[in-house]
Amino acid sequence: MGKGAIKEEESERKRQTWQWPLVALVVVLLAVAVSSRTASNAGFFFTDRNSCSCSLQGSGKYKGIVEDCCCDYETVDNLNSEVLNPLLQDLVATPFFRYFKVKLWCDCPFWPDDGMCRLRDCSVCECPENEFPEPFKRPYNIAGLPSDNLICQEGKPQAAVDRTIDNIAFRGWVETNNPWTHEDDTDNGEMSYVNLQLNPERYTGYTGPSARRIWDSIYSENCPKYSSGETCPEKKVLYKLISGLHSSISMHIAGDYLLDESRNQWGQNIELMYDRILRHPDRVRNMYFTYLFVLRAVTKATAYLEQAEYDTGNHAEDLKTQSLIKQLLYSPKLQTACPVPFDEAKLWQGQGGPELKQQIQKQFRNISALMDCVGCEKCRLWGKLQVQGLGTALKILFSVGNQDKEGDQTLQLQRNEVIALVNLLNRLSESVKMVHEMGPDVERLMEDQIAKTSARPGRLRRVLDLAFSFW
């Protein structure tokens, strides 16, 4: 081969070397343009993304705008980790937000209670009066609620219950109905004050047909999954809220799991976490949606929550609570990055809007009533709290409008509704944080494990079946 031919061949190779990266770059740019356009048209609430100040960038598995919301996944993860989660963790530990009023012993209105709890930890123990601090026994709680923790008689702080806090410790709140929830707050004689910090949401061993029947009834009778061609946004919202709540509950079970009962060893059950949530992208997306939905309810109620009385008689702690509430409501990062997490004004606008709203209200009330059928006391506690929190968010967003419009109601919330709302937001915040921080590693680990055990497909399935728990 002559020198001229060799030079010509080298030149051709150089042209090809530069052409392929150029072609690849063009393909990437076209893909980005198409995906950005797809993200800008995603959802049924926001068609004009100029109203959003959120980025469409993302570095993880979930990228772009959270469906039907106005924040992207990366923004939510950053806001949650840096601002919202630390604030919420501090808030739910304050005396005002850690005591929840609940009727623990309830008759199921739908079927006989046949639930069985395998673990002691599914119960909420009642401490004898001689173990309560003296201020709790006074008819007028002058000293206020203590900021330290109570210890149950068996040394199991996760099971303690407080039944002796006087209502006078919580002043300035009204009794008001919520059209979205089944009310059981009228029978005060059977109500208990529970310290949520001493009764964490975790695995309880609640298993069997009773546990499965709760979720089956919720989904099949009150919240059926919408078809791919569903055009009614309101029906989509209800399903996604329940699915998101369900996914969050499952995250907390997997995140605080009894790994070895004989040694009382607790830890993270990554197999359960993967099987219940992480291998189902729609469940993760619904959890982010529910988080933003509840966050929007909190921000919409800013004027009310800022002026509310967080009075427990413990002046220092009450001032701290008020400060944390204001930091949450007026976070500059939140107002800049995600000022409107969800746009509720787009719903109930059709001709049949009022009738559809009543139908979905009835369905959600049935869901809240189903919490009385949960056969595990601690599961019933967290089920009631979180469903009431979600019902409070629905009340704020859909039952109270702008006060300058004729016929709109002024927002009124019970103390218990505010406590449930903030604790629910914290639970969702914790779940989103776990997905963001642990999700990628857990998925890689489990996918490798599944690949290695592909010759024995029943093994992993049996492990997950044994790990089934409702709460």
Task: Describe what this molecule looks like in 3D.
By secondary structure, the protein is mainly alpha-helical. It contains 15 helices and six strands. The strands form three sheets. The chain has a two-stranded antiparallel ribbon. A two-stranded antiparallel ribbon has the order 2-4. It has a two-stranded antiparallel sheet with strand order 5-6. Helix 6 crosses helix 14 and helix 8 packs antiparallel against helix 14. The model is unreliable at 20-58, 115-120, 125-171, 402-408 and 462-471 (pLDDT under 50). Keywords: Disulfide bond, Electron transport, Endoplasmic reticulum, FAD, Flavoprotein, Glycoprotein, Membrane, Oxidoreductase, Redox-active center, Signal, Transport.
Task: Describe the structure using short key phrases.
single chain; 471 residues; mainly alpha; two-stranded antiparallel sheet; 15 helices; 52% helix; 4% strand; globular; disordered C terminus
Question: What level of helicity do the residues show?
Answer: 40-55%
Weakly predicted, low-confidence segments = 20-58, 115-120, 125-171, 402-408, 462-471
Number of helices: 15
Major β-sheet profile: 2 strands, antiparallel
Strand order of the largest sheet: 1-3
Strand content: under 5%
Rounded radius of gyration (Å): 26 Å
Order of helices and strands: HHHEEHEEHHEEHHHHHHHHH
Q: Briefly note the structural class of the backbone.
A: mainly alpha
Output mean pLDDT: 74
For the terminal residues, how far apart are their CA atoms?
Answer: 77 Å
Which term fits the overall shape? globular
Cofactor: FAD
GO molecular function, one term: thiol oxidase activity
GO cellular component, one term: endoplasmic reticulum membrane
Binding site for FAD: 202, 204, 215, 243, 246, 276
